[in-house]
Each structure stands twice: as C-alpha cells, then as structure tokens.
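Handover notes (outgoing to incoming on-call)

Open items:
1. Ferrichrome receptor FcuA: sequence verified, structure written out, both below. Nothing else pending on this one.
2. Nothing else urgent.
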Amino acid sequence: MGHVRGQQQRPSQPHWVHRRTRMACALGRIALGAAVAAPTGAVLAVALTPLSAQAQNAGAPGARAFDIPAGSLEDALSRFGRDAGIMLSFKPEVTAGRHSNGLKGTYTPRNGLDALVAGTGVEVVPQSNGSFLIQPASSAASLDGAVALPTTHVTATYDNGLQPAYAGGQIARGGSLGMLGSADAMDVPFSTMNYTEQMVRDQQARTLADVVINESSVRMLTSSGGFGEDFQIRGYTVSSSDVGLNGLYGMASASRVPAAIVERIEVLKGPGTLMNGIGPSGSIGGAINVVTKRATSEPITRLTTTFQSKSQLGVEADVGRRFGENQEWGVRLNGVFRDGNTTLDNGKQNIGFGSVGLDYTTQRLRWTLDAYTQHEGDDNFRPQIGFQSSVKKIPDAPSGYRNFYPGSELHLHDSAVTTRLEYDVLRNVTVWGAVGYHYATAYQTFPSGPADALGNFTVMNSYYDSYTRSRTGEVGARVNFRTFDVGHTVTVQASRLEQDSGNAYVPGSTSVASNIYNPSPLPGIGAARTEAKKASESALTSIAVTDTLSFLNDRVLLTGGLRHQRVALDNFSTATGALTGTYDQSAVSPLAGIVVKPLQNVSVYANFTSGLSRGGTAPVGTVNAGQVFPPYKSKQYEAGVKADWGPVTTTVSVFQVQRPNAVTDPSTNLYSFDGEQRNRGIELSAYGEVVKGLRLMASATFYDAKLTKTAGGTNDGNDANGVPKRAFNLGVDWDTPWVPGLSLNGRIINTSRMYFNAANTLELPAWTRYDIGARYRTRVAGKSVVFRANIENLFNSNYWLMSGTYATVAAPRTFLLSAQIDF
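Ferrichrome receptor FcuA structure tokens:
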C-alpha cells in the first residue's frame, strides 16, 4: 500500500486546500492531455532545472514561493505536498535512498514538483483525480532530461480521504474534526493526536484502549479484560459510549472497540460539542473517533495468527479489493476469532468479530457502508471494587492475576450498520448525509461489597442484564467562497441521535465474607434471571453552523461557530413500565479558534470551546427530588504552539477546563449543579522519526486540578480526585541496522499519585508500566511475513486504576505473539 504525502483532495477540507488542489488538478489535466494527444513514442522535452522553471513560472497564475532544503526525497516530497496543497502518492521503495537538492524560488505546483524531483531517478505522473503519482523513471528517459511519453492509461488512486502519515508512519499529519472536516494538524486551533493503522498493528493492539494510552493526556480508567473501557482526557472521564464511529455517536461498542476495524484513531483533547455534538454520556474531556478500514489501491489478503497469555489463541483475516474501470468500487472484510485462558485466575475468553466496509468513489460522489458484529464471552472477568467510608488508607493492590470475584460471568454482543453519502454539487459546494443503527446487549453477574483497609469485604452476587438500541442521522452542507481577500469555509449541519435502553437487576439473597488477596467463591444468586425492561428513552437533536476564515495567504485562520442542542429524556420504571421522569431542555455551545503561522513550519493557536452535558435530576432524599436541570456547560481556554521540524513535530499547550458538578448542600439538603471542578495543565509532546529508522513518541502532562466549589464549601481548594499531578509517556521504535527487517520497541507509561476522594484523605500510589517488543519482517515462499512479540507490564507491577468511586487492578505481565502473512 502506497504512502501518501500532502494535503488531501476532499470536499470536507477548508477552502484554501481546494483552491490549490483545483489549480493542480487543472494543470495535471493539461499535462496529461498533452501526453495522451501525443503520438505513441513521441518525445516531449521538459526543462527541469530549477533556474529555467523559475524563469518560466515567476509570473504564471498560481505560482508561489517555495523554500525546501536539500535532503531525502521522501522528506522533500512531504514538505512540497503540504506547502503546495496537492496530493502526492508513492510507495516507500520508490523514494528509499534517493536524495533531492531541494527547491527555492517561485513555481507553479506542477513545475515546482518537476524541479524538485529533477535528477532523482523518478518521474511525475498526473492522475485523473488531480493527484500526482511518483514512480521510478521509465527506461525511455534520456540522459539529457527529455522524457519519452508512452501511451498513457490513467486510473484514479484511492486514498480513503485520510490525511497522510507523518514521518515514521505511526502518527497521521491530521484528521477529521467532526463537522469542520479533515485538515492538517498544523491548520487547526486544537490539540489532536491521530494514530495510524501501522501503529495499531505494530503494537498488537487488541482494542482501542491499547492505542490511546500512547499519549500522556490520555489515561485508561479501567483495565483490559474488565466489563468495559473508560478513558480520561485532560483529567475528565470520557465514557466508552461516547466514542464515535466514522463521525457518528452511538454506533461503536459501549464496552470496547476491536482494533481489527481500525484504520485511524483520532483523539481531540478538550470539549468537542461544537464539532461533534453531545455524546450519549456527555463526556467533556475530549473526543475519540474511530475511522474504519477501506479497500486500498493495492489488493490486501492478510492472515494473522495470534497468541496471548495465559493460553489464548486466535486468527485474524483482512481482505480488501477495488473493482471497476477506475477502481471506484471497494470492499474490505475483517474477521477475528480468539479463544482460551486469560491472565486472570480461572479466566476464559471467547471473542468473535466480523466486519465489512463497502465504498463507491468518483470525482464527485463518495458512498460508504459499514457493518459489524461482535461477541465476547468471559468466564471470570477483571473485577472492580469500592472502599468503605471508614477506610483511612487504601489497601495495596493485589496481584493482577487475582480475581477477587471468582465465578463472575460476562457476555457482550454488538451489531451495527452505518452508511454515508457525499456529493460535490459544485466545485465549491458539498452536501452529505449519514445514518446508522446499533444494538447492544450485555449479560453479567454483578458482585458488590466495599472493602476495608485490610481488603476484607462482604460480597453479594446479582444478575445485571441490559440492552441499548441507537438510531442516528446527520445531514450537512459545506461551501467555500471568497469575499475580497478573505476566504470562507461555511458549514451547516443537523443531527439527531435516538437511544432507548433497558435493564434487569436481580439481587442475590445471600452474602459471604471475602478478601481481595484471598477471595471466596461468589455465592449463588438464588433467583431466576428476568428479561431486561425499558428504563429510558432519549433524543439528542442539534443544528450547527461554522465559518473558517483565512487571511494573508492562509497564514491566519479564524474559526467560529455555534451549535444549538436539544436534549429530551424519559425515564421509566423497569418494574411497572410507568413514566417516572421526563426532561426536555436545550442550550447553545460556542466555538472560537485562531491559528497564526509566523513561519511556514510553526503554528500558534488558541481556542475557546464549550462542552455540553445532559443535565441531571435531583435524587430521592433531597428536598427538590425529581427536579430536572438543564444541560450544563463546560468551558475550555487553550493556547499552544506546534512546530513541524520535518522529521519531528513538537507541541506545547496550556489549558483550563471548568466543569459544573452536582452537589447537595449539607444544611438545606438542596441538590444542584452549583459545584465546580477546574483542571489546568501544560502538555508537551514530540513525535516522528528522529533519525532514519528511529521513531519516537514522547509526552508529558502537568495538572493543577482543583475543586473550586463544593457542597457547603467543605472541600473547596482540594485537589480534584482521580486526577494525577503528572503523567509521562515515552515510546521508541527502532529498525536495527545489523539485522535487516528486525525492529525493537519499548514504552514507558508513568502516572503520579492521585487522590481517591474529594476530601483528599485517601490516595492511590503512583505507578509505572514498562512494555517491550520486537518484530521481524522477512519473506517466506515469496510472501511478506511479519513476526511480532510484545510484553506488556514487563516487571509485573501491581497497581490500582480508578474509575469514579471504584478501583480495578491493572492487568499483569502479558505476552503477545503474532505471525502476519500477506498473500
């Protein structure tokens, strides 16, 4: 599969990309028309020297100044594609070992590209979609620079609408931002991280959680092998139910997203309500979007066998093909099956997953359809526990192999189908629509009983079964235009997400004494399981408008917008079916952002965003029980600097996120959202390819998280519980020079201590996790084969992870092995 460099030609991108891409596309068609019109074997002499090209184009329409230093051809092409706003496609082997003399002067994009590759042994072939293919120079190329043009047959290349990979291939140059579309990370006023499929495969990721922990601002609140996955971004919880699937909420599994479906993982740090709307759980710390796999220009037939300790074997299949005269049709199939013993005491897990991704792509029309189904069955899943209010010190974490609820069971099932259609009405006008349906069920035992300081607790077992049904849809339009010297990208979007959910809770009748270090088997429940009944119905409806303005040759970019969101909720008694509460409120979320580029490779940005969460209802026992509260807003202020040094990008950002909290006044017993938590922080990061073959990801986050308003002022000024003071990540991936095909990798994840409660009387200790791995690429019987081996939690550290008022023990040392063969 080829590498892609430069801006993507997508209608969803800001207008400054389209302007240059349309120009490049026109120039490409002119050059291509001349080539096709020429008789077979005709020779067209092209002046390729930088001086002559500059003289010819200094006054040409669309010409601009370039200053690209000499270096590797791959780096030079990457820089040129980005500066010129055009799309370049090439395979890694085409540029490997080739050097460019750089480019300095004024050129049109096409002639600048010709000048850049002069004397490198490659040639430029324009494609029908406006992109350019870089390939080895044909044998007919003469020594004096004249190029023989054979009869040309052009087919469209398919790029999946994705931003190209950055140096090293682990991180993408940018990603999608909901209704704002897809853009380079240097052009957006937000802090983002976009992981590629290469990162997913090389780390042997099993789920979404295995990837997002590569950055210090993101932490897992639950451990692998538990009932689900919850995340923390900038110190605030992001529920797994708020993960987007191709930009749609409610379509991804609320338990865990399998890595087999992933092409990209896009992480936005900070509230994303304006770009994405309210998630089902109203998470405000950030937004995570999963982009599913599509068929690529190169056929894919990949089989991977896997092993995971304790003794879990698996097989994964990945098949992709494109069809049609111009490869306009694509199909991508993925399947996973794993079964065997887990690292947990007496743990067994069975996983089955299957997905299909279809697409149809022409110059003006893009259609996709995705469907998946997954099932997971666990005998003994990783437990979580609370602590008694009298506890003065949290007990040490038990072994990660220990299941302190022996006999627990969990069965999860998810199925979904989504489809999206985009159409370019005019060159500068795009409309789109998308719909989706998702149904999920969970059947589990539900042990409960808080522990004391010695780890003693009394446990009762129960059944807790649930379902969620989601239907979603969105429509939108985007138009690019200019008013005098100011460019505009105006986007309008409307969306609706409907969900109904139900549950059945059957408590047990007996309790037994137990201990987290020496647990007793779970007692019997003594009652029959019942069918889940409807508990709630909700509808999230919104309409939004944004405008991105560009000034001074795109060196200043301003983005502003508003989203009006309506939240309707009905609650029902699962026993009688009676309506127990209703809610219908609305609010507006604003966005303002700016990007200033004092240098070509430096972006200074700032933003103000407002997150929106569904308001709560005063609980029974308060004087205003049943009172419904409107959606509450969370505010973020952020500023930062991004610098792209070519092989490495560095970022620094400062932020403040304020969120209202629910409190009950101790003197009046009045429940309200008058509480507040304020998280301030500094983020530092660096990623890319430091030197050829050495990839790096390093980040650090420093928090000052405070409870600024609490019930009765009792805990005002305390550290926010569940938020560490510091978090660090360091990951390296190195291609060894002495053994071709052998790569080694390592990762260190560190999190400082944090308080477990708002009173700051209980705390969880700091922890550090070390991971190592290796992979070996070779050929067997003419087929590409990759062997991978990873060890997570190398030193088998035992430590607590915190989610709300519960804690779970991190997974122990885990071995991962796989063998991948491409047919």
